[in-house]
Recover the amino acids of this structure.
């Protein structure tokens, strides 16, 4: 039986693009053990930080797990559940005005695709800045992470 974990993530930017940060909290449900991590970048986008938080959180897992991802990012949620299969079948291209264009943040989406194949990942959307304790904590960590770049 694979371990069950909750992954809470958030990304933040001051300006878009601008200095940004990402953060995650991983919680092992059986033991209650938690791990927090965060980092910042000098010049990035909010979507990139949201996606990086999920990638970094999944990369921190040492073996295949059942993961419930909690994020306020519709971009990440829709990308995982709706867009990625189409992008992959189109050679990691998306349709825009009838033409195929490169997927933005392609290397992160490709890495996320690899990681999802190693785990059983489900997605739960949470409302941002709504008093959800773990989402609020991730937001705090992500904002702290980019402060040094301001």
């Amino acid at each position: 039986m694979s371990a069950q974990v909750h992954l809470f993530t958030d990304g933040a930017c001051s300006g878009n693009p601008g200095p940004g940060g990402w953060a995650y909290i991983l919680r092992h449900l059986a033991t209650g053990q938690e791990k927090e991590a965060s980092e910042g970048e000098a010049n990035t986008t909010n979507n990139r930080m949201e996606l990086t938080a999920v990638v970094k959180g999944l990369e921190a897992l040492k073996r295949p797990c059942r993961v419930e991802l909690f994020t306020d990012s519709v971009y990440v949620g829709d990308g995982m559940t709706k867009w990625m299969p189409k992008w992959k079948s189109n050679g990691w291209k998306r349709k825009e005005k009838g033409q195929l264009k490169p997927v933005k943040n392609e290397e992160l989406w490709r890495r996320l695709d690899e990681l999802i194949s190693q785990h059983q990942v489900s997605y739960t959307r949470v409302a941002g800045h709504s008093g959800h304790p773990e989402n609020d904590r991730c937001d705090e960590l992500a904002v702290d992470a980019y402060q040094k770049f301001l």
